[in-house]
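Batch queue: ligand-bound targets. Current item pairs a single chain with zinc ion. No template structures supplied; prediction is de novo from sequence plus SMILES. Inputs echoed for audit trail.
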Amino acid sequence: MAEEYLYRTAITRLRVEESDRRLLKRTIDQFRDGCQLAVEEGFPRVTEKRTLQSIAYDTVRDETALKSQHAILATHRAAEAIAGVRDRWSEGEKASKPEFTSPTVPYDGRTMTLFDDGSVSLTTVEGRVRPDLILPDDEDGYQYEYLDDERWSVTESSLTARDGEFYLHLGFRRPKTEPTAEDGTVLGVDFGIENIAVTSTARFFSGREANHERDQFKKRRASLQQTGTRSAHRTLQRLSHREERQHRQRLHEIANGVLQEALDHDCSVIALEELTGLHDEIPDANWFDLWAFRRLRAYIEYKATAEGIAVESVDPRDTSKRCSECGHVAGGNRSSRGRFHCDACGSEANADYNAAKNIALKHVRRGPQSSRRTGTRQCALKSGTITANGTFVPM
Ligand SMILES: [Zn+2]
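Prediction returned. Tokens below.
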């Protein structure tokens, strides 16, 4: 069986010398022309890349300035487009001959080389150019996750021109790691308003800044308070790009922090609350918070998959009312000022931390779901792990 890969894309702007801009622009234009020429040769009969390559390659080389590899890729792109039209025909849909308009040219290992000094060499219609990647100054730029990690290797990429700038969409891939979800150590994560996320290992991600920003939103746009998914969706579309990006960035940072916590504690599972029950569990949450939790969850899943860590849901019921020390379930609401106080055993804890431990324990107690695996599970805590029957193992 062919090896399976995970694929990710990192987008970076390029710092292009004035004299090289013309070459890149011309390469993009010529590639577009090359695709169109190949379509004219093959449409509508030829849908096979190799076949179209042998039919159209010479024409593309003769009538454009493309170098051989880009000429080949142009015939392949044309074959894909023709195949797409044929697919739509077979579905009974209407589709006409492909027209290439987008200012994009693909790059692969033969036409592109990434260097450690942050530059990239790209084949053009006349030799190569070597612009620098423009990466975020801070180390938090998500691009570094792939660039600085040897497990990811560069694969099919593309160069795009937009608004007078050049952007490189760097494709990365790495072999898939199968999650070992049935056993191992579980990291519990509680979502909330005061703290956006708290882990069972006592890592707190404060919501203070995000909440402040959200209050600013509210002031500016009173209509945001309306509930309902459709209206929420429409309202989100009206959020300015900057505000939304700020929020996504913050959620990415939290997701990275949660992932790091799972890696630091050798966890093979991250247990999160099911978001469907979350509205009851966090009565203060409005649609905006629920949107943020859904995003955060998606980011955690996305990043966890790349690390071979499974993300599992648990029913959030009682996770904030139960005492993680003795298991007593308190009636009424959780205690005041973010503290959880147990009337049975007297233990006191931060309420969100107590909930995070309960979420992990809930998954641990559920036990393996299949008969294939018989491993034990334990919950990751700040100073060790705890099994379903309460055995504590210090770290
Ligand atoms: Zn208790």
